[in-house]
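User: Reviewer 2 asked us to show a designed sequence for the structure in our supplementary figure. I'm pasting the structure tokens here. Could you produce the per-position amino acids so we can include them in the response letter?
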């Protein structure tokens, strides 16, 4: 009853290339300065749901966190902040995003346009970077399909009711027929007994 968002193939190749570049940059970064963990790299959501893009980072100094959204509609900057400082949230997401100190963000009331890749970059004050990616799939409930299921269910319920009534009528008719047959048999048996008595 739910259908996933369909994206453009050409843009998917671009997004894939960006992902590979970020992964290569993450692999080549200097060790020990900063770490970033993405516990849930894949999120499935339905329209109007709230989702948490959860990450956890650690670093030696002050870190800058930046979130971007990449989809078939383009790249959008979501939010950027330094740990402990004011959060700069894009006007597109102003009323829909909550930022957390650990680097996570919550996105409220998601729509089909919110599907895609979410990139988070954590930069230490000395210039060391860590990258994370979360893929969000947004599904839409198709009310026409639900309507079809409701109509089908009502039709099956009506057919079942008709069959039950038919079976009840057949059962009632069978009882009436059995009573008549029993009455005739009783009457004929009584007549035979009377005849036998007369003959004797």
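Assistant: Here is a per-position design you can include in the supplement:
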């Amino acid at each position: 009853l739910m259908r996933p968002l369909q994206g453009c193939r050409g843009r998917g190749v671009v997004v894939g290339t960006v992902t590979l570049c970020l992964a290569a940059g993450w692999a080549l970064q200097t060790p020990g300065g900063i770490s970033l963990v993405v516990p849930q790299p894949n999120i499935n959501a339905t329209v109007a749901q709230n989702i948490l893009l959860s990450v956890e980072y650690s670093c030696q100094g002050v870190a800058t966190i930046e979130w971007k959204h990449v989809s078939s509609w383009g790249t959008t900057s979501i939010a950027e902040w330094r740990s402990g400082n004011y959060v700069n949230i894009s006007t597109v997401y102003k009323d829909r995003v909550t930022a957390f100190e650990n680097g996570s963000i919550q996105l409220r009331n998601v729509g089909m346009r919110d599907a895609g890749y979410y990139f988070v970059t954590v930069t230490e004050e000395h210039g060391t970077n860590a990258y994370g990616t979360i893929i969000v799939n947004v599904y839409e409930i198709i009310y026409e399909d639900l309507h079809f299921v409701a109509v089908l269910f009502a039709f099956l319920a009506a057919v079942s009711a008709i069959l039950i009534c038919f079976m009840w009528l057949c059962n009632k008719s069978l009882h009436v027929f059995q009573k008549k047959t029993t009455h005739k048999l009783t009457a004929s048996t009584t007549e035979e007994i009377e005849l036998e008595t007369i003959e004797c």
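For the response letter, you might also mention the following. The two ends are 84 Å apart (CA to CA). The chain has two domains: 31-140, 142-188.
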